[in-house]
Amino acid sequence: MIRxxxxxxxxRGVRAVDNISFTCEPGTVTGFLGPNGAGKSTTLRIITGxxxxxxxxxxxxxVSFHDIPNPGTQVGxxxxxxxxxxxxxxxxxxxxxxxxxxxxxxxxxxxxxLVSLTGNEAKRRIRHYSLGMRQRLGIAHAxxxxxxxxxxxxxxxxxxxxxxxxxxxxxxxxxxxxxxVLLSSHLLHExxxxxxxxxxxxxxxxxxxxPKEELLKGTGTFLRASxxxxxxxxxxxxxxxxxxxxxxxxxxxxxEQAAKAAADAGVVVIEIRESSQGGLEEMFLQLTxxxxxxxLPRYGGN
Length: 302
What we know:
34% of the residues lie in helices and 26% in strands. With 302 residues, the protein is α/β, with parallel strands linked by helices. The chain has two domains: 2-215, 3-Layer(aba) Sandwich (Rossmann fold); 221-291, Alpha-Beta Plaits (2-Layer Sandwich). Strand 8 (197-202) and strand 9 form a beta hairpin. Helix 2 crosses helix 3 and helix 3 (106-114) crosses helix 5 (131-143).
């Protein structure tokens, strides 16, 4: 189990993580989502003992990472696949890890087979690896000590579709056998498929958390009209708060109530649906709309 309690981290007056709390239970995959700069990586670094928090705590199995004896046999970590020593061979990286953890040399071959790195690939220097191969090697190292907890940051980055499918099955099997997985990723579709629980963070604060099915149910209504200004006025007149989204509006009321407000004002609605139909991506964009740095550009015209 991973437990984060009132965790806060400041960097020279900037609050990267702001009093967050959550728990990752055994037997589950927890998706940890947020825009760039939201505080995800800082949180993962604190959990894995690489960064000291300003306040609060993060524990694994009831103790901090630094207090876990031979931590690689309890917690598998992959935070940056590109951080591996470029001059070493893949097989050498795993052999050093096995020796450090006091594991039999046979674990190296087992892990190479598990992540589908061939004998020739294992003998190549990491500087000649693709990003996808580095990810596979990183997963092999994380699983080397047969841990019960995995903490992973963007493990599918650089994998092709077949590799992503393989990763999904690997993590699902790990959790189904009682393991705990905390997974940060920008691949929202994959998180929607694999995650049991979801945590969304923005500007260092948790903006939503809970079971996936619960979060994706009843997330409001999206509607669009040929006259957007008239629709906004109709919703406002009905006392419904509307948030601009794409070329329409998101409202926190059922579709029937939103449609009635538009109809009473004589506004023709050309699209209306439950926001949950947009899945995790739509929910993510709604929850983090004030933290997004990207907006659609306007081309040409006045």
